[in-house]
Amino acid sequence: MPTRPPFDPAFAAAADADQLDRAAAGLTGRGYTVHIVDTPDEARALVLKLLPLDKGIFTAASETLREAGIAAAIDEEDTFVSVRRRIAASGGDFAEQVRQGAAPDVVVGSVHAVTEAGEMVAASASGSQLASYAAGALTAIWVVGAQKVVPDLETALRRVRTHSLPLEWDRLQRSRDAESFIGKILILEREAFPDRGTVVLVRDRIGF
Fold first, then answer.
1. Does 88 map to a domain?
2. What is d(CA 18, CA 116) in angstroms, rounded to the nearest whole number?
3. Distance CA 146, CA 80 (A)
4. Does residue 177 sit in helix, strand or coil?
5. Cα–Cα distance, 11 to 127 (Å, whole number)
């Protein structure tokens, strides 16, 4: 029977201002638009300001979006065209969610690690959000807590396996009595299209 992966609490520490600045510079150099905000509330206000009112927006499954109130503001209110709300209204199942979520106008989500050089790492069991992150969405916005900034790619992958995965394991145990696993890992090295990708770095800890 699968057991909970070992947990490294060291990855819960928020990066300092210099580390955040280096990550922001690295991301900018790789083609992303970067904002640094102080709190999750500021992140939510910024993201909602950036979103179009007339385009379909898909919220990737994310504790960061849930904790910041971003997912609720998009999917539970009538201000935006929510892809998840549209799927639910049509009676769509998980397969339909995967199909529509793979290529929305806009995806809003998070990643599990950002290196100081500007690489981003996202892991998923099903991989349902990774297609939109990589290329499917015309516009992508990622909200990232300061504790996810790490020195390099090797450390980023270790953070995914020894910090994010155990926390997601615990969440699924509480909510569904299920185990989590890593099915797919996406490494975002660089953005090819100008103005496609935006990263909102939060000085606070938020998400896994």
1. yes
2. 10
3. 27
4. coil
5. 23
Question: Residue 47: which CATH number?
Answer: 3.40.50.10420
Asked if residues 124 and 181 have their Cβ atoms less than 8 Å apart, the reply is no
Residue 173 lies in a domain: yes
Alpha-carbon distance of 132 to 134, in angstroms, equals 6
Which pLDDT tens digit goes with each residue over 132-159?
999 999 999 999 999 999 999 999 999 9
Q: What is the DSSP letter of 6?
A: P
Q: Rounded to the nearest 5°, which phi and psi values hold at 108?
A: -120, 130
Q: Which two tokens stand for residue 15?
A: 């990066």
Quote the number of domains for the chain.
1
Query: How big, in percent rounded to 5, are the helix, strand and coil portions of the chain?
Result: 45, 20, 35
The answer to whether the CB of 91 falls within 8 A of the CB of 80 is no
Using alpha carbons only, what angle is made at residue 12 by residues 179 and 59, rounded to the nearest 5 degrees? Answer: 60
Residue with tokens 């900034």: 149
Q: Which domain holds residue 73?
A: 11-202
Alpha-carbon distance 108 to 129, whole Å?
Answer: 10
Secondary structure of residue 89 in the 3-state scheme: helix
Q: How many CB atoms lie within 10 A of CB 182?
A: 16
| Residue 207 located in a structural domain | no
pLDDT tens-digit profile of 45-68?
999 999 999 999 999 999 999 999
Q: Is 208 inside any structural domain?
A: no
pLDDT at 22 over 60: yes
Tokens of 122: 């996202």
Q: Which residue has the higher pLDDT, 1 or 157?
A: 157
